Amino acid sequence: MGVRYGAHFRLAGRDFFSRSEAMTPPIILLFTCDLTLNKMVCEALLTRGAIVLTTRNVPQALQVVAKRGRELSLALMDFEGGCRGMTLLSAIHTCYQELPILVTTSNDACHAKAVAYANGARVCLNKPVSAAQLASTIEDLQQPSGASVLAA
Is the peptide bond before 25 cis (omega within 30 degrees of 0)? Predict the structure, then answer.
């Protein structure tokens, strides 16, 4: 369902999660200057009741991570025009290795995608990305098994 879970345990081969945190809305860190992407993310998450914390620069994003890093369900970072924000990606991944990170890049940013994966991104999507593709990818990343999700 795309929510953060508290305690996790496994019994007889099945995963179980504590219910106390299962009802909290997901909190998404969005790092972008692209207003179209910002709107699309908010629309994609509207039905899920997610809280989107939008930041426009690295210092703002680092403040959010410092204050609310443990609460985050997902980080979505836009690397439009290359590797802007790569230090942020690396810092988030270093502090919160279990946090799923989705990166969007321009179609011709092969180098940026390679560097993003090397610095902790779980998924890289080429822009333009559709709202449906974005919503589906975010949903997949929010699942407990989201660590194995890969996209082109």
Answer: no
Name the token pair of 142: 């929010």
If you average pLDDT over residues 52-79, what whole number do you get?
A: 92
Classify the C-alpha dihedral 121-87-76-19 as positive or negative: positive
Bridge partners, residue 27, by sequence? 51
Name the DSSP letter for residue 79: -
Q: Answer whether 0.85 is exceeded by the pTM.
A: no
pLDDT at 14 over 70: no
Q: Map out the domains of the chain with their CATH numbers.
A: 22-148 (3.40.50.2300)
3-state helix, strand, coil in the chain (%, to 5): 40, 20, 40
Q: Answer left, alpha or beta for residue 80, where phi above 0 means left and psi between -120 and 50 means alpha.
A: beta
User: Is the CB of residue 64 less than 8 Å from the CB of residue 53?
Assistant: yes
Alpha-carbon distance 87 to 94, whole Å?
10
